[in-house]
TrEMBL record:
Superkingdom, taxonomy of origin: Bacteria
Pfam families: Amino_oxidase
Ranges where the Amine oxidase domain occurs: 15-245
Keywords: Oxidoreductase
EC code: 1.14.99.-
Annotated InterPro entries: Amino_oxidase, FAD/NAD-bd_sf
Record protein name field: Phytoene desaturase
UniProt GO molecular function: oxidoreductase activity
């Protein structure tokens, strides 16, 4: 990650974030592309088990029924690590995947009115913080959203104390770049605590990340938790998908 960002200079370090939401930026265009290819997309249809015969996946089982696979069919298994582990365990004894996870905490503070940002904060509408609990602050209208990654360390903390400490960070960082200072007490907030947001970025967990190829000739793995060389990120997930396509020989690198 350092090689692809810090060591390439400032331009390679500019963060990207969606203009509206991830759906508009990534999901809708992907679905539109799949529609052009006349692909069938099934949502709310979990794969429960795989049938395997002679080193090939021959069918997928979901509550809606069985999806039989022909000799030409290939599978890219792009499910979370624990799901991949449970689907593959009966067929690939000893298969390992990351099994320790970190949470991400998001707090969305709703203000009485949209604050007026100044200078670069007005242009970027987000900032990164160092030396504080809050790591990223995003300004969207009257909402100030805060992200805290690797948040397991705060799991035992009293939620009100945590919100107060984070609001203190936000005021310290934002007040100098807002026309009016923020209120001293934390405004009403929505807390979203995603418990298994990412695999734990430790050397032990990194060693458990498999490559895309498996011993099943028509099945490749994808997902941010595979051996992408990146932490659990959208970029890692995307690259893993491309790698899985190459592994199955569907397209050359
Ligand atoms: C709160 C939060 C904030 C984040 N912020 C950022 C960020 O700012 N930048 C960034 O780069 N990354 C961020 N990430 C990480 C990013 O979201 C992930 O790295 C990325 O979504 C991983 O993509 P994936 O395709 O590997 O897995 P997922 O997005 O988890 O997709 C796996 C899919 O498999 C499906 N599935 C599960 N079980 C089954 C089954 N049995 N059968 C069929 N389907 C199944 C799931 O429904 C899901 O759709 C964030 C994550 C969280 C939780």
């Amino acid at each position: 990650m350092v090689k692809e960002s810090l060591s390439l200079g400032g331009k390679a370090c500019v963060p990207w974030f969606p203009k509206e939401g991830l759906s508009e930026s990534l999901v809708d265009p992907a679905l539109a592309h799949l529609a052009i290819l006349q692909a069938e997309v099934r949502t709310q249809s979990r794969i429960n088990t795989l049938d395997v015969s002679r080193g090939r996946v021959t069918a997928l089982h979901s509550p809606d029924g069985v999806i039989p696979l022909t000799e030409e069919d290939t599978v890219i298994l792009a499910v979370p690590a624990p799901v991949a582990e449970s689907l593959l365990a009966p067929h690939l004894p000893g298969f390992q995947a990351p099994n320790a996870f970190e949470s991400i905490l998001n707090l969305h503070f709703r203000l009485d009115a949209a604050p007026q940002a100044l200078g670069s904060f007005a242009r970027a509408r987000f900032m990164g913080l160092v030396g504080s609990i809050a790591e990223w602050v995003f300004l969207r209208g009257d909402i100030l959203s805060v992200t805290v990654s690797a948040a397991n360390r705060f799991a035992e903390q009293d939620p009100d104390d945590l919100a107060r400490a984070i609001w203190h960070d936000v005021r310290r960082a934002c007040d100098p770049v807002l026309k009016e200072p923020l209120p001293a007490t934390p405004p009403h907030q929505r807390v979203v605590w995603e418990k298994r947001a990412t695999f734990a970025a430790t050397p032990e967990q990194n060693r458990l990340r498999p490559g895309s190829a498996t011993q099943l000739v028509n099945l490749a793995l994808a997902g941010d938790w595979t051996a992408t060389g990146l932490p659990a990120t959208l970029e890692g997930a995307m690259r893993s998908g491309v790698k899985a396509v190459h592994t199955l020989g569907l397209r050359r690198p």
